[in-house]
Specification:
heterotrimer, A alpha/beta, B mainly alpha, C mainly alpha, A: alpha/beta, Rossmann fold, 6-stranded mixed beta sheet, 4-stranded antiparallel beta sheet, 9 helices, about 25% strand, globular, B: mainly alpha, ABC transporter involved in vitamin B12 uptake, BtuC, two-stranded antiparallel ribbon, 17 helices, disordered N terminus, binds adenosine-5'-triphosphate, binds magnesium ion, ABC_AA/LPS_Transport (chain A), nucleotide-binding (chain A), ABC_transporter-like_ATP-bd (chain A), ATP-binding (chain A)
Chain lengths: ~250, ~425, ~325
């Protein structure tokens, strides 16, 4: 079976600073894959490279076997890859309902239609309602997204990301800044919503990572130094030295 | 959980009522349009109403760009003007070829003229949003305005292209000679265009336009190409601006290069922004106000455009939501029943504000008369001021300085009262 | 043979003369444009605000220059008027833009748009709508040199000298001073401006003031040579925006090159009287007036006003970032 995401020898330079160096990563279909690493390691940059937000200097990225590096983000999204952002990135002046609905429209095939009334599309309405229910924001449906609390915005961010029904979902630090209880709720939410899909997640909270991931990759200075099951990563001496050692104190 | 269920079932239960209100507002608008010329039937007011109708269509079309898609255009009049020229040429062609197309269909051709140019240049223009788009729209506007003076055979040079609306085939026996018939024609197209533009905001494209306005980056990650969205919005805006231009061509029986110039582009921006871009009815208010001021002020003062500029700057600085935003701000307070606590502070603040405004008007009029070399008295609310008398200057200085200082204090009080009222509204769940 | 050669030589001299004079005038116009576009570019890069009223500050410079010249003579005016304009610019930043900043860039742009509109009306109210009699100072009112048959005025040489001096001074300030380094950092890393520290407001105000003062200076020196009139800002403003979009928004070298290109192209276009008809012969007369015959018969000089905008369209097709731009928006 072809891998869901295959990153081959990707380099990314900003000016003459190499931020990502010889990045190789393979994520199988249906796998829950966590990327961890210290601040500034290039995790978000990796997300940007895969999702088409920035173009690699060299190397290629494949989605379900097809080369996607060089495509526009919306083309990649239409092929079934969806991502969230580390810094909340929603439609601030639109209501919660409209935020989620916007993310549903393309996937339900309504595209740029200007001859349909958006309020009388039953499948759009049902799907939007279901996702709002899932992310526990039904009671806030008519509130502009910019006025939500921080934790609510993070949940909305997840909702927008999964609304299109993408088969590959990438979440960049979804629980950052949440309280313990909020984190727990978010993790069970993520677990439920990505059932049967491929998940790539960046996370600093080790309990989340080890509780959720099937496999983990450790990124340090733009290079993956280890990749494996949580058990393997826990035991890997390189990882302990470069990363987990820091976490410990 | 109980609050969640109640507030969800709330809108559903209210849906019928909401619907009724919604159609009621539109129906009321149509009735007003029908009755208006029966109440104010003088030729002057009919012309004013016609102008206002055209301005509303134009401003609504502009808001497809500014309010809906977040595109600030400094050259929207290009589509208005080209719509007007297209309409004139089509009318002349109909007359000379004897085609059986009656006048009421002409605005459609105007719309196609505006749309055609939008299709042509829009793709290039909407590649980028923000400041770059603003600058490019200005450049294209200047390009077309200057070219129109070169292509004399198409645009008729300085004189423009004239036409005769009564020479077209009749419909329902109407000649469209009398202004009242033209008024009803404009009113008809106003209603049709407004409904169409409102409907557009309720389509997938309309909703995604808002998303592009709020966050063009994120839109790319939910499957949409923001460039395509902007382009389509631009085409629709061009189409409806063209309809407005076609209506203007019918009303004036002429199209000239002033139609597509920078001033016309600036006026529609003023009208839309002053009215408020965040609500569909905002540009309608703005178009009514700006056209009315334009007609009213020109006869009262020689420097009416300066007042426009000042009003515009005031709105940008103190109420960027425009008049509509200002009105709608009060809705949650009204519902929560805490609005009345703010009103007294308003009443107090209005006095020094009006004094300040009077002072500014006195200063401007005095200077204008001084450099214009005329000495006619300044008539302010029935009081005559002699622009040459030091008493006037002192009055102006006192009004400006005193008004400014006191207005600042009183508006701070309004702010405090407002915060208290908003807290009440928030507690009662009417404000997020 | 003999009789035909002389006119040809005369003609060639005339062409040469036209070229030399046009290059001089073109560079001069280009340098003036750069005096304006440099300030506009730096302000845009640092604050993200495209100052629509920049050309209005140029106009204020010209009118202040005119008025002060009348009261106290040209040379004091030459110093005072730009300072006055700079002070107005600082006030606009401090009391206008800073308060509007929270409403976003569109609101800021609209504020400067309203200002441009209001300034034009105020100028028209005070000085009228027809050109004022702003004369070249007597000290510089003589021909500097004669090329072929044309006297080149000393005042234009003075203008050129002033703009070159300012250009060099700007370079030195950018390269050698603290504020210059901050500005440079802002040009390359616009998102870092926020980290300038607590006096970021002061830096903005000073930069805005200096940019406005430069525009004012351009107005003071250009006023006597060009026409000082209440519509001069509206006429120059759009060209200024073409310059900075053409050069690449936020790029100072781009603004410099674009200023010179547009200055030269405009000047040459105005000087040329040729049309397609004069090159290829008249169009078949049977057609009567049409769009084609309009284009065929129009002279390059008549097209001059639209040439900058045509350049804008071309650059957008070929290189949407502008000549030297690197930034998306
Ligand atoms: N557009 C850019 N231009 C220049 N440098 C950049 C750019 N984007 C990211 N970088 C740099 O690349 C490095 C990696 O950044 P990235 O955001 O990918 O780190 P990260 O692993 O996600 O860190 P964190 O855990 O803090 O989110 C950082 O040093 C950052 O400064
Ligand atoms: Mg990151």
């Amino acid at each position: 079976m072809t891998a869901a995401i295959e990153v081959r020898a990707v380099e990314k330079r900003f000016g003459n600073v190499g931020i990502i160096r010889d990045l190789n990563l393979s994520i199988a279909q249906g796998e829950r894959h966590a990327i961890i690493g210290p601040n500034g390691a290039g995790k978000s940059t990796t997300f940007n490279l895969i999702s088409g937000h920035i173009k690699p200097t060299s190397g290629e990225v494949r989605l379900n076997g097809d080369v996607i590096s060089g495509l526009q983000p919306f083309e990649i999204n239409r092929r079934g890859l969806s991502r969230s952002f580390q810094v909340t990135n929603v439609f601030a002046r639109m209501t919660v309902w409209e935020n989620v609905r916007s993310a549903v429209l393309w996937a339900t095939g309504h595209r740029y239609a200007f001859w349909k009334n958006v309020d009388s599309l039953p499948e759009v309405r049902e799907r939007t309602a279901r996702i709002l229910e899932d992310i526990h924001l039904t009671h806030r449906r008519d509130v502009p997204a910019g006025l939500l609390t921080y934790a609510e915005q993070r949940e909305l961010e997840i909702g927008i990301t999964i609304a299109g029904g993408a088969t590959v979902v990438m979440l960049d630090e979804p629980t950052a800044g949440m309280s313990h209880a909020e984190t727990e709720r978010a993790v069970s939410l993520i677990r439920r919503l990505t059932e049967g899909r491929t998940l790539v997640i960046v996370e600093h909270d080790m309990s989340v990572v080890f509780g959720l991931a099937d496999r983990i990759s450790v990124l340090v200075y733009g290079h993956i130094i280890a990749s494996g099951t949580p058990e393997e990563i826990r035991r890997d001496p390189k990882v302990r030295e470069a990363y987990l050692g820091e976490e410990a104190h | 959980m109980t609050t969640a269920t109640t507030s969800v079932s709330g809108p559903a239960a209210n849906a019928a009522g909401e619907n009724l209100r919604f159609y009621g507002v539109w129906l009321a608008g149509v009735i007003v349009l029908i009755v208006l010329p029966l109440v104010f039937s003088s030729g002057g007011s009919l012309t004013s109403f016609s102008l206002i109708g055209i301005a509303i269509v134009f401003a609504l079309s502009y808001n497809i760009l500014l309010g809906q898609t977040g595109l600030l255009s400094f050259g929207h009049a290009v589509h208005y003007g080209l719509g007007g020229f297209t309409a004139c040429h089509v009318m002349n062609a109909i007359v000379s070829h004897g085609w059986p197309i009656p006048l009421p269909f002409i605005p459609l051709f105007g719309g196609l003229g505006g749309l055609g140019f939008a299709i042509l240049v829009g793709w290039l223009m909407t590649k980028r949003a923000g400041t770059v788009f603003a600058m490019i729209s200005l450049g294209i506007g200047e390009l077309v305005a200057s070219s129109s003076l070169i292509l004399r055979s198409v645009f008729g040079g300085e004189a423009g292209i004239t036409t005769d609306r009564t020479a077209l085939p009749r419909m329902f026996g109407w000649t469209f000679g009398p202004q009242i018939q033209v008024y009803y024609l404009i009113a008809f197209w106003l209603v049709v265009s407004a409904i169409a533009m409102y409907a557009l905001t309720r389509t997938p494209l309309g909703r995604i336009s808002n998303a592009v306005r709020d966050n063009p980056e994120r839109v790319q990650f939910i499957g949409y190409d923001p460039h395509v969205v902007r382009y389509l919005a631009y085409c629709f805006a061009g189409f409806f601006a063209g309809i407005a231009g076609g209506l203007a061509a019918i009303s004036f029986e002429i199209a000239n290069s002033a139609y597509l110039g920078a001033i016309q582009s600036g006026l529609v921006l003023f009208a839309t922004f002053i009215g408020g871009t965040a609500y569909f009815f905002g540009p309608i208010l703005g178009a009514i106000l700006v056209t009315y001021l334009q007609l009213g002020l020109t006869s009262v003062t020689s420097v009416w455009q300066l007042y426009f500029g000042i009003i515009f700057i005031g709105i940008v600085m103190f109420s960027p939501g425009g008049i509509a935003g200002l009105v709608m701000m009060h809705r949650p307070l009204l519902r929560a029943g805490s609005l009345w606590t703010v009103i007294p502070s308003y009443l107090v603040a209005i006095v020094p504000t009006v004094a300040l405004a009077c002072g500014v008007i006195l200063v401007i009029e005095t200077i204008a008369r001084h450099s214009g070399g005329e000495a006619s008295a300044i008539n302010l609310f029935g009081i005559a001021f002699n622009p040459k008398s030091p008493a006037t200057w002192i009055a102006a200085a006192v009004l400006v300085a005193g008004g400014f200082v006191i207005a600042r204090l009183t508006w701070r009080r309004v702010g405090e009262a407002w915060d208290r009222a908003a807290t009440v509204a928030r507690d009662r769940g009417y404000l997020a | 043979m003999e009789t035909g050669a002389l006119p040809r030589i005369v003609h060639e001299y005339a062409v040469l003369e036209l070229i030399v004079i046009s290059i001089l005038n073109g560079v001069l116009f280009g340098m003036l444009l750069f005096l304006l576009s440099s300030g506009l570019t730096v302000i845009f890069s640092m604050m993200g605000v495209l100052n629509f009223a920049h050309a209005s500050f140029y106009m204020l410079g010209a009118f202040f220059g005119f008025q002060l010249t009348k009261w106290i003579g040209f040379w004091p005016a030459f110093v005072l008027a730009p300072l006055l304009v700079g002070a107005i610019g600082m006030a606009v930043e401090r009391y206008g833009l800073r308060n509007t900043h929270k409403h976003g860039h569109v609101a800021e742009l609209l504020l400067t748009f309203g200002l441009a509109f209001a300034i034009e009306e105020i100028v028209a109210m005070i000085w009228g709508r027809s050109p004022v009699d702003y004369r070249v100072p007597a000290l510089l009112d003589f021909p500097a040199f004669t090329i072929f048959s044309t006297n080149y005025p000393a005042y234009k040489i003075f203008m050129l000298a002033v703009s070159v001096v300012i250009f060099v001074a700007l370079l030195l300030v950018l390269r050698r001073t603290r504020v210059g380094l901050i500005v440079q950092a802002a040009l390359t890393h616009p998102h870092m401006v926020g980290h300038l520290g607590h006096n970021v407001g002061r830096v903005f105000m000073v930069v805005f003031g200096v940019g406005s003062a430069l525009a004012g200076l351009a107005g003071v020196i250009a006023g006597p040579a060009l026409v000082t009139q209440s519509d001069m800002a509206a006429a120059l403003g759009p060209i200024l925006f073409v310059v900075i979009v053409f050069g690449g928004l936020g790029s100072l070298p781009g603004a410099f090159v674009a200023s010179l290109v547009i200055g030269l192209v405009q000047t040459f276009a105005v000087a040329l009287n040729g049309s397609l008809a004069s090159v290829f012969g008249p169009l078949d007369a049977a057609g009567g007036p049409s769009a084609l015959s309009d284009i065929w018969n129009v002279t390059i000089a008549q097209v001059a006003p639209i040439i900058p905008y045509l350049l804008l369209v071309i650059i957008l097709i070929v290189r949407p970032m502008g000549l030297m731009g690197t930034r998306e928006s």
